[in-house]
Amino acid sequence: MVGLKWEPKVAGFGCSSKATDPSLRPNSELVDGLFVPPSDPKKVNKMLKKQLKDTAGMNWFDMGAPTVTAELKMDLELLKLRSVMDPKRHYKKTHFKSKSLPKYFQVGTVIEPATEFYTSRLTNKERKPRFAHELLSDASLAQYRKRKVREIEDKNRPAGVDKWKIRGQSSRQRAKNRRH
Description:
The chain has helices at 41-51, 70-80, 82-85, 131-137, 139-156, 169-179, and strands at 30-31, 34-35. A two-stranded antiparallel sheet has the order 1-2. It has two domains: 1-52, no CATH class; 70-156, no CATH class. Helices cover 34% and strands 2% of the residues. It contains six helices and two strands. The longest helix has 18 residues, at 139-156. Keywords: Nucleus. InterPro entries: Fcf2/DNTTIP2, Fcf2_C. It is found in: Nucleus, Nucleolus. One of its GO terms (molecular function) is RNA binding.
């Protein structure tokens, strides 16, 4: 191995050029292909903050903030309105009072234990990919929605003879013609 020689390009180890001096080189330059952090502590702290992942913290096992898609947003809004969907269930007031969605959350799948195989298990036909699809396919919820819509329509419909009257200019002319 005649003629091969390696020298580190750090000041004080043989190469004394100004380009390798750490105080004179730009921040983005690499030394021997390795990244050397800046000497300014403020810049170091800024770089470390950028590298930290956006998590809920150690107490929440570093749960990350998920990317919110349209489907996920719809599911979260339906969860906000869950107290309206079922008249028999009453839920505690949630922290969803604000219009914004929570920053940190996770979506999971409920797996039933083997003991509930015959009692409260969903069949494959009843399983849907999204929470909204499950609600729309639920027969008892559809019946409840129809009944509530009918009640609201009955309440807003005029009562007695008024429901047969057609209001407007033409009704006045018909009344005039009936008198003569």
